[in-house]
Amino acid sequence: MYDVVIIGGGPGGYAAALYAHNFGLSVALVEKERVGGTCLIRGCIPAKSWLQSAEVFHTVAHAADFGVHASEPSFNWEEGFARKNRIVDQLVNGLSGLLKKRKVEVVNGYGRLAGPRKVVVDTGEGSVELEGSHIIVATGSVPRAIPGYEFDGERILNSDHALDWQRDPGRVAVIGAGAIGCEFASLLTDLGNEVHLFEMMDQVVPGAEPQAARSLERHLKDRGVTVRTGVSVGPAQIGDGGVTVPFGEESVQVDAALVAVGRAPRTGDLGLEGTNVELDSGYVIVDLETYETAEPGVFAVGDLVAGTPQLAHAGFAEAIAAITYIATGDPAPVNYRAIPLVVYTHP
Hints:
Strand content: 15-25%
CATH superfamily of the largest domain: FAD/NAD(P)-binding domain
Number of helices: 8
Order of helices and strands: EHEHHHEEEEEEHEHEHEEEEEEEEEH
CATH class of the largest domain: Alpha Beta
Number of strands: 19
Number of domains: 2
CATH architecture of the largest domain: 3-Layer(bba) Sandwich
Radius of gyration: 22 Å
Helix content: 25-40%
């Protein structure tokens, strides 16, 4: 029996696994893909790679503003994609090595709760049963969809798809002007793409300080992004000429629509229905002092926790708090007021 069995190898999961080493706890980490999770593989890190590529392109294109004269640059999407993959692969390999050094047993497969202190893992070649004195669920989140915009990976995309662009997407409608939507709008306009940014709330980055949001909106517009706030879009119309996005009495035609309306917790098919774990709209309710659920011995951290920010560093901090409680019995809650939120646009 392990001291801790963790389902999910993203920031919450791998942080818990690594921190448990400080207390001499034995750990099994279950992950159905590569370790790293959304942030490392299809979120924060690959997005920053694309943003840096776009920044370099924009700087070279405007080099004359600094007295540097060069020929007009071009951007190779396949090479940008390859660079992104190299960065991700290097970090995944480094994380894998660190987990091995900390004596974490990584079990590849899909994990589900299977009774008190038990997790069953479907490895694709059979099933493995793991027992743990404590179980941490850290399965993260997935991009949300909206009616009329069913993902096909070509015309209608989510952020996972967009991070794997290998050719110029052309004209893009970005639906949702939160952090993800604004970052994509920023990098696309820096690369010379026509961008239409839609937000149903009355400002970009809803919930941000209004003056900062107005400043960001102004800068995005100055750089060529068409920003529309306080509007809702109707169902997409896909034709030979691309995608028509209706809004009110108007519409805009683009080559692709990127839906960036937030992320939904990944809590389906985890065996939670057979436990006392309580959910709120799919999010797991925990004691924010300890991160334990209503099922004794079962904890949850990261994007699937109800009422907490969906940020990698928040999940990391929650993992440390959960392990501290498991190892010592002393609560060490996260101070969420000290958790920063950064939107990586230009500026």
